[in-house]
Amino acid sequence: MTTEQILVGLASVLAAAAPVMFAVIGETISERAGVINLSMNGTILLSAMGGFAVAMTSDSLLLGFLGGMVIGALVALVVAFSSITLHQSQVAVGFVLAIICRDLAYFLGNPYVAQSGPRLNTAPVPGLAAVPYLGTLLFNQTLVTYLSFGVILLAWLWIYKTRPGLMLQGIGERPAAAFVRGTNVNAMRYLYTILGGAIIGLAGPSYSLSVKAGWMGTISGLDGIGWIALAITIFGGWNPLRAAFGAYLFALLQWLGLVLQSSLPNVPSQVLQVAPFPLMILTLLLVNIGNAEWVARTLAALPAGPRRVVTRLLRALRASPPAALGVPFESE
Amino acid sequence: MDVELRDIHKTFGKVRANVGIRLHVPAGTIQGILGENGAGKSTLMKVLSGFIHADQGAILLDGRPVVIHSPADAIRAGIGMLHQDPLDFPPMRVIDNFVMARGGSLFPGRAAARRDLKKLAAQFGFALDPDAYVDSLTVGERQQLEIVRLLWLGARVLIFDEPTTGISAAQKERLFAALRLLADQDKTVLFVSHKLEDVEGLCDRVVVLRQGYLVGEARPPYTTRQLVEMMFGKAISIGKRVPCAVGETSLRLRNLSVEDYRLKVRGVNLAVRAGEVIGLAGMEGSGQGLFMRAVAGLLRTTGGRISLDGRNLTGRSHLVSKRHGVAFLPASRLEEGLVPGLDLTEHFVLAEKKGGFFIDWEGGRALAEERIAEFNIRGTPASHVEALSGGNQQRALLALLRVSLRLLLLEHPTRGLDIESTIYIWSKLKERCGQGTSILFVSSDLEEILQYSDRVLVFFNGRVSPPLEAAEMNTDRLGELIGGKGWPEEEWVEEMTADG
Ligand SMILES: Nc1ncnc2c1ncn2[C@@H]1O[C@H](COP(=O)(O)OP(=O)(O)O)[C@@H](O)[C@H]1O
Ligand SMILES: [Mg+2]
């Protein structure tokens, strides 16, 4: 392969990862606040269909994306209401919603199957697109891909660098402590769940209006993506940058599978298709190595200075879920 | 700030937690709030700090009525509270915990906050590393963080709910010094405790709560008798040391060694007689926990021999030693001892281990009722364990134990309990000693160690003293040993071998 081919391939990886990225970041925000939005798989399908239908009827891409966001926000509202206000299990409600939304998408989407509709074009950034290497890789993409870059950065900045973001971490970690610091925990949970849902709702139209343009009903090939996004959220340790890394790694492994298939005809294609999954699990294990007892014992033997550095490093790598994930909060 | 509570009422279902409480605390005072577990102290303080709503009543600050409906209102009014267990964010860093609640700008301004944190901490002699993660701090340090955080938010009234539970003696000294300094700075300090000695040494004045009522007030010089009578409505005496009639040697440890990656405990020799009580003293994490778990069969020993009634238990699991009459009650009652979410009947049914596939609920309830009466547990067979107060949880744990035990291992059996519960628990434990059960217990309360043990093992950084006669010890000497002072270099080792 030429350098140019590799760059174009990598650029396609970035583009292909964009919809998953929205789902992962949206879910990360929701779970940071303590609410698991398990409906994601259905939301993605429904917003893909809905976004396509809206864009086709109105002939407006913008309205299509907005439609997807509204759908995502509404589904998230159901999750929030049933868990925060009605104290129902987030897992049960989310799971049922995932199925309902999927079937609804197939049912309501019937009239739109295989119709031609609007599609987002690449929008090279003037000036930057001509920069060698980086231009091809980063600045010759669609608006959706640029938006996915922006969402990653914004989410990360918000969670780690702003005051409300710190409190967002706190709400998912220990709602009672957030409450005594003057936060209206349940209002914030509503807000972040709905916001997260709206971002998840961008994933669908990103497929149906850009990455895999069109609506193909049951053979759209979108079923299952939500579950993968859920796994990547966990892999990403509820940190947008790590989650982004996970999503890109996954898209990259899939692309490599496709590329290698032609150069390694002896390897059954199934192996290459499935390989990304165990590789993800392996990475996850490596990243969380700091939890192991033998690592702690080895560290104890180090002198204090290096030990502190290594401990902090492992600490930064390690991820544990927000402690109050899925736990309702009620002030007394 | 001058604080006045007028006619505070609060009920939880049928429980009357606060009944018409009136309290007036002028600025610059350390006000003690004393009462046994469940007296309603925390409830009253949570009302003042906006954490819960009073059913009725008014709060006046500097003579003006204020409406406090949420912690946000309280913070705005200048009231801050340190909750019974620190309400902070363990996986986050000190600096992030510190800056979090302050409103205003979008960005936290960590650099300036870091300077403020250091300045405030220095004022009180606290050593807080802004970049440390909170879960690596001790409870005492987490309190220190909360104090400076609340001051930074502009708190002028500070509430401390049972702050002396779970902190070291040195940290307690530092805390008390900080409280005095706060009072000197004209802050209002409300200090909640169920420990007389804390209140006596610190507070300018004391009120006593009992079963939701404010039953009395006192000013220094306090007399212990008067405070105890107010707390419990009757005089309680701790009683004299009663050494149990001890029998044959039951537990024998020879050269026992155990270690984890932090600490090594080497070559402990000990012969415990039936009915004897051995207290294990030492700062938290000096090796007592390892030692206990090794004896219980929960940790693998790295050397030596454990035998009970002549039976070799070395290297056997806890299941085996349990079968031979060993029981272990860990410090964390709810995490390791009881099952939150299950009620008392279910606990007794689980503990009985009767044969049969189906559960005999009738029998279980009857058994639960019987034990509840016998152990004086405030609860019903249908009470969930997490709803019980600490003292009642501890009673439940004791009630769950098998009747005939040879060896009982206890960690902090009375931590967080008031005097009455403590005395009760120990009367039950001594009853068992009378039946020939030997007891090994860990405690950070020196008085408790000396009061109830026959002999004492002191742990310091993995080193273990030979068994010392409790009757010949006093708290000063014990305190020194715990702090690592007065340890002879070699001769103790000789003595220990001779004894084992
Ligand atoms: N959230 C609650 N729900 C039900 N009962 C409660 C609650 N909080 C406290 N209580 C009850 O109110 C009484 C007073 O409790 P508390 O104020 O915590 O006592 P203290 O702090 O003096 O030990 C106890 O009987 C306790 O069981
Ligand atoms: Mg309390």
Task: Write up this protein.
- The complex is a heterodimer of chains A (332) and B (500).
- In chain A, 71% of the residues lie in helices and 0% in strands.
- Chain A is mainly alpha-helical and 332 residues long.
- Chain A has one domain.
- Chain B has 500 residues and is of the alpha/beta class.
- Chain B folds into two domains: 3-232, Rossmann fold (3-Layer(aba) Sandwich), CATH 3.40.50.300; 249-325 and 402-482, P-loop containing nucleotide triphosphate hydrolases (Rossmann fold, 3-Layer(aba) Sandwich).
- In chain B, 35% of the residues lie in helices and 24% in strands.
- Chain B is built from 18 helices and 21 strands.
- Chain B has helices at residues 41-48, 71-77, 94-99, 110-124, 139-152, 169-184, 196-202, 224-232, 288-296, 318-323, 333-337, 344-352, 361-374, 390-400, 419-434, 446-452, 475-482, 491-499, and strands at residues 3-12, 15-25, 30-34, 56-61, 64-66, 79-82, 157-161, 188-193, 205-210, 213-218, 249-259, 264-273, 277-281, 303-308, 311-312, 326-329, 407-411, 438-442, 455-460, 463-464, 468-469.
- In chain B, the strands form four sheets. In chain B, strands 13, 16, 17, 18, 19, 20 and 21 form a seven-stranded mixed sheet that branches. In chain B, strands 6-7-8-3-9-10 form a six-stranded mixed sheet, with helices on both faces. Chain B has a four-stranded antiparallel sheet with strand order 2-1-4-5, with helices on one face.
- In chain B, helix 12 (344-352) packs across helix 13 and helix 14 (390-400) packs parallel to helix 15.
- The complex binds adenosine-5'-diphosphate and magnesium ion.
- Residues 12, 15, 17, 35, 37-43, 389 of chain B line the site of adenosine-5'-diphosphate.
- The site of magnesium ion has 5 residues of chain B, from helix 1.
